[in-house]
Amino acid sequence: MRYPEVRAARDDFVEWCRSRDYDEMRLAASYYVSPYMTGFAELDMAGSWESTAEYGAVWVPTGLRSEWVPYRDGHWRWIAPWGWTWIDDQPWGFAPSHYGRWAFVGERWVWVPGRFMEHPGYMPAVVAFLGTRGVGLSVADSTGPGIGWFPLAPGEAYWPSYSRDPAYVRSLNQGDVSDLETIQLDANGEPPLEVFDGHFANRRFASVVPRPVFVNGGAVAPALLTLPEQRLQDAPVLMGSPQVGPAVHRMALAEPAIARPSRREWVNHIGALVARSVSRARALQAAFMHRRDADRAPRLHGAHLRAPAYAQSAPPRHTILLRMAHSTPPPPRGGAGKEHRH
Fold this sequence. Notes:
- By secondary structure, this protein is α+β, with helices and mostly antiparallel strands.
- Helices cover 19% and strands 17% of the residues.
- The strands form five sheets. Strands 9-11-7-8-10 form a five-stranded antiparallel β-sheet.
- A hairpin with a 2-residue loop joins strand 5 and strand 6.
């Protein structure tokens, strides 16, 4: 049985999907970067490709304000296993944030994808941080430290905080660092995650925000702090991560609201409790007096101990009935007393 084909009606979702369709053969980006680079198809719609003598092919974003700086319009998020990962606000921001390098050329920013690599390595954020490990940057007139970072430039090695394998680190830097043999562990077998005297081309363009904004994933641009350029130049450089963990969110449960009684209600309640206690005390006292004046404690007489008739029946269980005789005053001497029994 054949069913007639029905053409899907065009709606906003269909239009959006068709607007995202592209032909890789018509994309300029596919001539400069690998199709395995996530987000490469967004570049042609947001910028243009140029050739430079120093860096070769570069991509230049368009429609940005003059003070725009990479890794400033967006926020940070802790994503395992990579750790701190940059989330860019721009629809084209994925590829330039996680591959290649940024360079400031002729008073404008250009993205340098580096030498063509068929399978480029993903990096959570191609930046270096500033400050003291686990603390950050001290900021004048601030209640706490800040966290600062800047984009790495072409030729500057990226060291991840989540791996100590030199071979893996070299694979991440292929196409961006000319001499991969310079990527080595230090004399103690540790990665050089803290650099005090290195030269970094983009250090002066560092972005700094209060530490709570960073660890809580707040928007960077509205929270920027201004530090002297010399302060940025003198700060230690931390590779891969500021060595600060994400914020721990604690959920506070509100106690249920309880209506407080009025003064009159409290007085009436306390009065009722007092009256109840008094009445119970009087009842107990009366019962005690009645018990004391009642029969005296019973006294057992041997003649009253007898087994009932059913005690001789088949069941092995025997029941003894105790008949209690109340004590009486001793009878007067004579025979009458011997006949008085209960």
